[in-house]
Design a protein that fits this description.
Chain lengths: ~400, ~130
């Protein structure tokens, strides 16, 4: 059964709008640009789309039925998760399973968001998410003034630093690496280099996270069209196969913004290393971790990059802050990560800008960012889910 | 105005206890373990045999942060202010803040004891103070 989804579905087309801050266009307008561009890219017509997967709906984005109504789609399968970055993988997986099961022929994974117009939803009195589950789902607690996902990443990183001796200077290697990548991306919002001194001099937001440890607040749209592998082979672009996947972990041993064993919220503390069930995506893909040529992750906050490396065993528990030094996660390094700049420096399009980058890399069209001989690339998150892609 | 905790049938005994200057925790009568956040069943035994019992109110800071950004107008005057998680001596962790301690002295492992703050005429919130061992 572990092989059931290997190479059954593929990304056949990608498209995007411009990425920027305070863009005048609505989310629906940005989304139309991205969707048309993805259809052109794949050589598909609007009428070919019969499914949609949205992971960031209203108010940051738009909901599936408004999308279908606005663009004149006629859908027979839809999926939408609550407004949270954690569901990128879920959306891709559901799209892949939908086409593999015959519930849809072509699913648009659709993201069109405006953080700048809706910035009051990111913490503070207007943040309904802060009250979800009687307190936010990243450990934030509005009655004590802890709000926004940044609060959860901060309490995770603070304990991580105390536990393992990691420092803010070490953490800076993450946003510095991704800024270097962003400078090579024509779509990136950030255009200036970031230095260690610049990182350290930037204001503290929520201790220990400084300004550049927190993702950008941007507007933009990105679309990835998922179809069956068989159909994808007949289309305009070389297919990017979804060859392995595993789901998000949840339970009392988990805190969304901490590795297992760290001791945030109700997590037990102790030694942990990934076991077979934590690495099923590689098994499904028929590869080993060492075959991964580049890793892409939801870098809403720089600690999440450390945590995903430990979660998937690229390094041991408590070792990631040292591991990311000396260019290891930069282009040309041992494991390039978020090669278009990620949420920290390219744009915050809910993580989908990195999915589009994976597709460009596996098609060999990433230009000066191209990872040589990239055959398998991995999308994986600090909360344990993953999709492995191959060309 | 600062946001208030949302009361539910599951956490109501917790806040009722605080109103009476007592920290109560939901204990499982089968396995004997307390849990947070308050739920209708024991997360380990999945049974409804829950009994609310007084806890010591003592614990240690297990993680902390200091907020420097004015996300809430009602907290703007408090910046920079701390938020902590406290691992209670009984085991579960509670999110709150520490009063009577400069932010520079926040540290994981710091021993604390509970304090009760009547934030409205109906609601009392737990806070913590440093304690000597």
């Amino acid at each position: 059964m572990i092989l059931a989804m290997r190479d059954r579905a593929a990304i056949a087309g990608i498209g995007q709008s411009e990425y920027g801050r305070f863009l005048p266009a609505s989310q629906l307008k940005l989304g139309a640009t991205a969707l048309k561009s993805a259809l052109d890219d794949a050589g598909l017509e609007r009428e070919d789309i019969d499914g949609i997967a949205i992971h960031l709906g209203w108010p940051l984005g738009v909901d599936y039925d408004r999308v279908a109504e606005t663009y004149g789609l006629d859908l027979r399968w839809v999926s939408q998760t609550w407004l949270h970055g954690r569901f990128v993988t879920s959306a891709i997986q559901q799209a892949a399973m939908a086409v593999a099961c015959g519930l849809a022929n072509v699913v648009a994974c659709f993201t069109a968001i405006s953080f700048t117009r809706e910035r009051q939803i990111l913490g503070g009195p207007g943040d309904a998410e802060g009250a979800r589950e009687e307190g936010g789902t990243h450990g934030e607690s509005p009655p004590y003034g802890l709000t926004a996902p940044a609060g959860g990443a901060a309490i995770g990183m603070q304990r991580y630093m105390a536990q393992y001796g990691a420092t803010s200077e070490q953490l800076a290697a993450v946003p510095i690496a991704f800024r270097k990548h962003a400078l090579k991306s024509p779509h990136a919002v950030m255009k200036q280099p970031l230095t260690l001194a610049g990182h350290q001099a930037a204001r503290m937001v929520v201790d220990p996270l400084r300004l550049y440890d927190c993702s950008l607040i941007t507007d933009g749209a990105a679309v990835a069209l998922v179809t069956s592998a068989e159909r994808a082979r007949d289309l305009k672009q070389p297919p990017v196969y979804i060859c392995g996947m595993q789901g998000m972990r949840s339970g009392r041993e988990e805190f969304i913004f901490a590795p297992r064993g760290l001791g945030i919220n109700q997590q037990p503390t102790g030694r942990w290393k990934p076991e077979e069930r934590d690495l099923l995506a590689y098994r499904m893909a028929g590869i080993e971790r060492k075959d991964i040529a580049g890793l892409y992750t939801y870098d809403a906050f720089s600690p999440l990059v450390l945590f995903v490396l430990e979660r998937f065993g690229f390094c041991g528990q408590g070792e990631a802050a040292s591991w990311v030094q000396n260019g290891r996660i930069e282009l040309g390094g041992e494991l390039p990560m978020n090669t278009s700049g990620g949420l920290l420096s390219e744009a915050h399009v809910g993580g989908w800008n990195s999915i589009l980058e994976i597709v460009r890399q596996l098609r060999g069209t990433a230009g000066e960012r191209q990872i040589a001989n990239a055959r398998h690339l991995q999308w994986a998150t600090a909360w344990g889910d993953s999709v492995v892609f191959r060309k | 105005m600062k946001p208030l905790p949302r009361l539910t049938p599951d956490n109501e005994p917790f806040y009722k206890g605080l109103r009476e200057r007592r920290l109560l925790l939901p204990y499982c009568m089968d396995c004997g373990k307390p849990h947070l956040p308050p739920g209708p069943v024991c997360p380990w035994c999945f049974t409804e045999h829950i009994e609310w019992r007084p806890a010591s109110g003592r614990g240690r800071i297990s993680t902390w942060t200091v907020v420097h950004k004015a996300w809430f107008p009602a907290f703007a005057a408090d910046i920079p202010y701390n938020v902590v998680q406290v691992e209670l001596d009984e085991g579960p962790r509670l999110t709150a803040n520490v009063i009577g301690l400069p932010n520079e002295r926040l540290a994981i492992g710091l021993p604390v004891t509970i304090d009760f703050d009547d934030v409205t005429t109906e609601l009392t919130m737990p806070r913590f103070r440093p304690r000597n061992e």
